[in-house]
Amino acid sequence: MYKKYKVNSSYFDTIDTESKAYWLGFICSDGNIVNHRNAKNGKIKKEYRLKIAIDEGDLEHLEKLKIDIGSNHKISFETKKNQQKRIASLSIWDKNIVSKLVNMGLENNKTFSLKPILLNNKLERHFWRGMIDGDGHIEPINNKSRQSQISLSGNKLMTNKFLSFIIENKIETKSKPFKDKSIYRMSFCGNYIAKKVGILLYGKSTIFLNRKKDTIDELLLYVPQQEKRESITEEKIINAINKSKNYKEAAKFLNIGYTTLWRYMKNKNMPNFNKLKHG
User: Fold this and answer.
1) Whose CA is closest to 155, among 188, 121, 198, 107?
2) Of the residues 14, 129, 159, 175, which has the fewest C-beta atoms closer than 10 A?
3) Taking CA 62 as the corner, what is the angle to CA 57 and CA 67, rounded to the nearest 5 degrees?
């Protein structure tokens, strides 16, 4: 049954590259391990299968995985009941791959049983990026509050380990994992800390889920502008106006957009430009 398909069986034997650490994290969050099944006669029959199922819109990501692990297994599609989205899934039957993953703690009920995996410090961020891409959430900056957040769901051990990883990389936070029904969530809320966590996980990386990387890139473009706006003071504005002939020139002096300057002055109930200039 499985002979017509091929895969690099030793891919996860040693986690020594960015790609291996990333896919390990992604599988830890979004993969499903089957290493036995019940036969019709009541006896346990061994089956070594790894299955990864994601939204069809992320199909390209499964293709990346196939290339990295040297697989020619087919991707199948299904529509779950009561859901409009189609699911793309990749099933890989390989005894060595499944056995290695099981030895690292990936069991059938891994959400509750998974324990932190010891990795080289330089590879740890790639593992956590895989976890975020698989079972994490990145709030887009274009929401109503204009505030982003990065969060990871899992058991208490894994969410605490994620927090420790963030702190060890000199990102200060008072956030702690909190219980949400049967699982725990570790959330970093607010643009500044989300920016720092985003850079740590996605900066200078070569493999990622495209849509989540795009969300991080949008955040990184937005925050510097926000920082500029929040650094503006009335004293700086008056100083810029006294050296300028119009709004555009004053805004250029402050290194912001002139509409940003106009809105700031309006929100602060400052006199208009001409009154300030000659007042």
Assistant:
1) 107
2) 14
3) 145
Q: Please state whether beta strands 149-154 and 86-93 pair in parallel, antiparallel, or not at all (unpaired).
A: unpaired
Query: Phi/psi zone of residue 181: left (φ > 0), alpha (ψ -120 to 50 degrees), beta?
Result: left
Query: What is the C-alpha end-to-end distance of the chain, expressed in Å?
Result: 86
Q: What was the pLDDT predicted at 1?
A: 46
Name residue, tokens 């290339």: 67
Cβ atoms < 10 Å from Cβ of 263: 12
Residue with tokens 């990184």: 220
* pTM, entire model: 0.79
In order, the DSSP letters of 214-262 are HHHHHHHHHHHHHHHHHT--HHHHHHHHHT-SSHHHHHHHHTS-HHHHH
Matching residue, tokens 């996860």: 12
Residue in 248, 85, 35 with CA at minimum distance from that of residue 240: 248
CB < 8 Å & 24+ apart, contacts of 52-57 = 52/26, 52/27, 52/89, 52/90, 53/87, 53/88, 53/89, 53/90, 54/30, 54/87, 54/88, 54/89, 55/85, 55/86, 55/87, 55/88, 56/85, 56/86, 56/87, 56/88, 57/85, 57/211
Phi and psi, residue 151, nearest 5°: -140, 155
Check residue 129 and give its pLDDT. 98
Low-confidence ranges of the chain (pLDDT < 50): 1-2, 279
- Token pair for 97: 């791959």
Instruction: Write the CB contacts of 272 (distance below 8 Å, at least 6 apart in sequence).
Output: 265
pLDDT at 236: 84
